[in-house]
Amino acid sequence: MKAKILIVDDHKVVRDGVALYLENDPDYEVIDQASNGLEALDFLEKERVDLVIIDINMDGLDGIETTRRIMKISKDIRVLALTMHNDYQHIKAMMDAGASGYILKSCDENEMKEAINAILEDEIYYSKEVAQTVMNNLAKKKPKASGDALPTPLTPREKEIYRLILEEDSNQEIADKLFISVRTVEVHKRNLLEKTGAKNSTGLVLYAIKNNLFEGI
What one-character-per-residue DSSP string does 31-65 give? Predict the structure, then answer.
C-alpha cells in the first residue's frame, strides 16, 4: 500500500518540487498540499495520512505548533521537518513537538526518500548536517548531577561513554581516551541502548534531548 503524504509549505514552488520528487515513486502518494498550518490541520481532521512533510516558518501557524496539534489529532501520523534552519533551537523545538525527522531544503531526492522511508519504519532521521549540529551542541553540555530520567540510572562510566558517542568518537577512540578495551566500550554501548530503548547512536541523541540528560538542552 502506498504511503499517503501531505506537503505543507507556504511556498508553492517548494511544495511542487517535493511533489515532483515523489510523484513517480510507487511507494508514495501525495494526496494534497497545504500552504499553512491551519490548512493542514483542517485537512487532517477529515483525511488519514501516513506522513506530513512540513516547513517551520509559515504565516499564521508555524510548523512547530502545527506539529504539536498534529500529534493531538493522531500520534500515528509521522512528521518530517523540511526547512532551511540548521540551528539547535529549531531542531529541538520540532523534535519536542513530535517530529520524527529533520532535513534541510538543500537535500536531494535520494536523501528525502531515505528520510521518508526511515520515518515510515518508525525510526528517527536527521540529515548529516543536522545530526552534526545536534551532536556539537550536546557535546558541550555537562551531565546532570541528579541522574537520569531512566528506570535504571546511568553509571558514571556510561555517562562518559554517552558523551563521547555524542562527539561521534569511534569505539576505538573511546577506548583510547578512557584506557579501556574496545570490547568494554561495546558492552557499555549495548547497555546504553538497552536502558534508553534507542536503536542506534541517533536514537541516543534524541533520547538525550527529550529527557534532558545534559544541562541546558
Answer: EEEESSHHHHHHHHTTS--SEEEE-S--SSS-HHH
Find, among 203, 212, 192, 26, the residue nearest to 122 by Cα: 203
| Residue 111 amino acid letter | E
HSE-up of 34 (CA within 13 Å, CB side)?
24
118-145 tens-digit pLDDT: 899 888 888 888 888 887 776 666 555 5
Radius of gyration of the chain (CA): 19
Q: Are 152 and 195 in contact (CB under 8 A)?
A: yes
Distance separating alpha carbons of residues 108 and 43, to the nearest angstrom:
27
Query: With a threshold of 0.85, does the pTM exceed it?
Result: no
What would the grid cell of residue 119 be?
520515518
Dihedral (CA of 19, 56, 124, 51) sign:
negative
